[in-house]
């Protein structure tokens, strides 16, 4: 999921809002993986699975196969843990912020650990294979540094992001008096 593409966003960190209004981000994107279900849908699904497992387990218990009830309980617990792991993974996100001075990529892990990479926009190269395939990767590179971004996005979303990023980079690289035309 891509949010906030191509909007003018807050000022570059370390810059005061009153100085140099032109230092605003020219491109700011937040990339997030899609989640399986909303919390209400998750609750309804777990109630349905638990109810079905309980009814089936009770039938087996009445037939004398009481250990089967424990396996149905284990099944419900494993499904619950799988969804919780998926929700934890969905807390991962990446931000791409382009100013005239740099493209800053920030990746936040589910635990909250942040990693940051800084690229000079004039030398930045954006690589993606077209036509889009699931295994295609969006890679940005400059001065020997390579970084895969948006690995959790769909192939079409990666192509869309690459196009928008290339357009924003062209705008940064063009002379200031020609920027309105780009």
Task: Please explain how this structure is put together.
Helices cover 36% and strands 24% of the residues. The chain has 182 residues and is an alpha+beta fold. The protein folds into two domains: 2-33 and 95-175, PH-domain like; 39-89, no CATH class. It starts with a strand and ends in a 9-residue tail after the last helix.
Structure characteristics:
182 residues; alpha+beta; PH-domain like; 2 domains; 3-stranded antiparallel beta sheet; elongated
Compose a concise summary of this entry.
This protein has helices at residues 39-62, 67-89, 155-173; strands spanning 2-3, 9-11, 24-25, 27-31, 93-98, 103-108, 114-119, 125-127, 138-142, 145-149.
Query: How far is it from the N-terminal to the C-terminal residue, by CA?
Result: 26 Å
Q: What is the strand content?
A: 15-25%
Tell me roughly what share of residues is in helical segments.
25-40%
> What is the N-to-C order of secondary-structure elements (H for helix, E for strand)?
EEEEHHEEEEEEH
CATH architectural group of the largest domain: Roll
What does the main sheet amount to?
5 strands, antiparallel
């Amino acid at each position: 999921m891509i949010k906030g593409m191509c909007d003018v966003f807050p000022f570059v960190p370390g810059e005061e809002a009153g100085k140099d209004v032109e230092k605003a981000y020219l491109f700011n994107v937040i990339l997030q993986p899609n989640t399986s279900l909303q919390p209400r849908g998750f609750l309804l699904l777990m109630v349905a699975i638990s109810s079905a497992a309980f009814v089936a387990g009770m039938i087996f218990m009445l037939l004398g196969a009481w250990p089967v009830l424990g396996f149905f309980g284990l099944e419900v617990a494993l499904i619950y843990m799988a969804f919780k792991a998926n929700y934890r993974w969905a807390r991962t996100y990446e931000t791409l912020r382009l100013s005239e001075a740099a493209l800053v990529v920030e990746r936040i892990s589910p635990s909250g650990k942040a990693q940051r990479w800084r690229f000079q926009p004039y030398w930045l190269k954006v690589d993606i294979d077209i036509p889009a395939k699931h295994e295609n990767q969006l890679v940005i590179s400059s001065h020997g540094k390579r970084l895969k971004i948006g690995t959790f996005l769909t192939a079409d979303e990666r192509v869309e992001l690459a196009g928008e990023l290339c357009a924003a980079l062209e705008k940064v690289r063009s002379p200031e008096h020609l920027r309105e035309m780009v």
